[in-house]
Specification:
Layout lengths: L1 E4 L2 E4 L2 E4 L2 E6 L7 E9 L2 H5 L6 E8 L15 H17 L5 E4 L6
Antiparallel strand pairs: 1-4, 1-7, 2-3, 4-5, 5-6
């Protein structure tokens, strides 16, 4: 699962030009919140080349309104899409002027 910023992302008084985010979901301990490591890279090419990340932002996704099933339209797993969309909401709180796009969520052909 990944997210692409399409413009500048502001974090801690620094500005990053269209960074790329990889998401690593962890099993929720309490069943209510899923911990997500949102790893930021300069771009998709940096991630693909194995370059180091810029930072990791911890995100906790509330599962109380998560979909009851995994059947989704055009996605293999609706829960993965839900986590990705909720992570975008958290990123928008950090940098409200940034536009994000969901990329690399497995889709149905």
């Amino acid at each position: 699962m990944a997210i692409q910023a399409t413009n500048d992302f502001e974090l801690d008084y620094a500005t990053y030009q269209a960074p790329y985010f990889r998401l690593q979901a962890h099993l929720p301990v309490d069943g209510e919140n899923s911990p997500i490591d949102c790893v930021m890279y300069a771009d998709n090419e940096s991630y693909s080349a194995g370059s180091g990340s810029i930072t990791t932002l911890p995100v906790y996704v509330d599962n109380t309104s998560a979909p009851a099933d995994n059947d989704g339209t055009n996605v293999i797993n609706k829960y993965l899409l839900y986590i990705t969309e909720k992570t975008i909401e958290a990123l928008e709180e950090v940098s409200p002027n940034t536009i994000f796009t969901v990329v690399e969520v497995p889709t149905v052909d």
